[in-house]
Design a protein that fits this description.
seven-stranded mixed β-sheet, alpha/beta, Metallo-beta-lactamase, Chain A, 376 residues
Length: 376
């Protein structure tokens, strides 16, 4: 009995220490971002997408499992899945220094893997969802490592960035370490409502941040940015779920029209966006980190839904993102692209599949697609 009592006390102390350390980490680590002021909340209350202290989706969307979901979730998380990660580090095309020193006159995209990419358009360099660290988590021990050894352009070698566009505040899209390393190179930031609170906490001046609600437009010299709906959620800590808005984005120049889906489950918003702002010369569409067994949580698309969403927004060319960098859900790492290729072929959609780091010129897509993933 005495031994059991000692074991019980030791276990209680251990649990207490874990709770205390966890609480200190959540409250003191800058990774978790900022807290909204009363003025912020007042501003959010004018949004049609905000009520009772949270933002919400256009369609009813489950984002939090119930107690009755636990058996299914546990079964899914413990299910053996082969090829969750590549057999070896994925290839990366390193962008030569001379390639980025001079701003291209052509509209072009350089994919960094996952949902991060550099877009050059109308004499501007835009950096989209720049998660450029190795692990998408508040601490390296809490997440999976990147599938590549290096980036196409090292963070310290990035050129001047005219604007950063963010889709939402999840760790695989908004990265504290990256923001600190690039902030002296960045002119402006464009975010959904509330995400600017994190940026200000990390030292970005309020006047350099433009927060947009869904369907709001912002002019950036000759470019027009539109925050459009997505079907997802937000949050960086234990108690801030849906406290900031999530969005997809329209990026429109005088001659070209580009769409970025952000993170989104399939929904009617894609057709609404296509009807209002399409057709799009290029759509960067989420494809990956879904779960075929948990489709009741419609916060990511299956590859077949990615293809349908691309048709809905009236995309002329589709570049799949949100894959090939991290294992964030229970599917083989190349399942997204293999299924998307089949579906887009059936739908006669033009798909481009560049190697990470490959420079893709919008008016010259020849040699922009290879089945490079097959050997990994």
């Amino acid at each position: 009995m005495k031994l059991l009592k000692i074991i019980g006390i030791s276990f209680s102390v251990l649990v207490g220490l874990v709770v205390v350390i966890g609480g200190l980490f959540v409250n003191l680590s800058p990774q978790f971002g900022g807290t909204h002021s009363e003025n912020d909340i007042t501003r959010f209350n004018s949004s049609k997408n905000y009520k009772e202290g949270q933002f919400f989706n256009l369609e009813l969307t489950r984002t939090t499992p119930s107690f009755s979901d636990l058996p299914k979730l546990i079964k899914e998380m413990t299910r053996e899945v082969s090829n969750l990660i590549p057999s070896k580090k994925l290839p990366v095309q390193i962008v030569p220094e001379e390639e980025i020193e001079v701003l291209s006159k052509q509209t072009r995209v350089i994919w960094f893997g996952h949902s991060a990419f550099l877009l050059e358009i109308s004499g501007k360099r835009l950096l989209i969802d720049p998660m450029l660290s190795d692990v998408p988590a508040p601490h390296p021990l809490l997440g999976s490592e990147r599938f590549t050894k290096e980036l196409p352009i090292a963070i310290e070698d990035l050129p001047k960035i005219d604007a950063v566009i963010l889709s939402h505040d999840h760790y695989d899209h908004l990265d504290y370490e990256t923001i600190l390393k690039i902030k002296d190179k960045v002119g402006k930031y464009f975010t959904p409502l509330g995400v600017g609170t994190h940026l200000q906490e990390w030292g970005i001046a309020k006047e350099d941040i433009s927060e947009l609600d869904w369907w709001e437009e912002a002019q950036f010299d000759s470019l027009t940015f539109v925050a459009t709906p997505a079907r997802h959620f937000s949050g960086r800590g234990l108690s801030d779920s849906k406290k900031t808005l999530w969005a997809s984005w329209v990026i429109k120049s005088e001659n070209e029209n580009i769409y970025f889906s952000g993170d989104s489950g399939y929904g009617k918003h894609f057709k609404d966006i296509g009807d209002k702002y399409g057709p799009f010369d290029l759509a960067l569409m989420e494809c990956g980190q879904y779960n075929d067994s948990l489709t009741e949580f419609a916060i990511h698309m299956l590859p077949e839904e990615t293809a349908q969403a691309s048709l809905d927004v009236k995309a002329k060319v589709v570049l799949p993102v949100h894959w090939a960098s991290f294992s964030l859900n229970r599917h083989p790492w190349k399942d997204p692209i293999e299924r998307l290729v089949v579906k887009t072929n059936d739908m006669d959609l033009q798909l481009v599949t560049p190697i990470i780091g490959q420079v893709v010129e919008l008016n010259n897509l020849e040699n922009s697609s290879t089945a490079w993933w097959k050997d990994y």
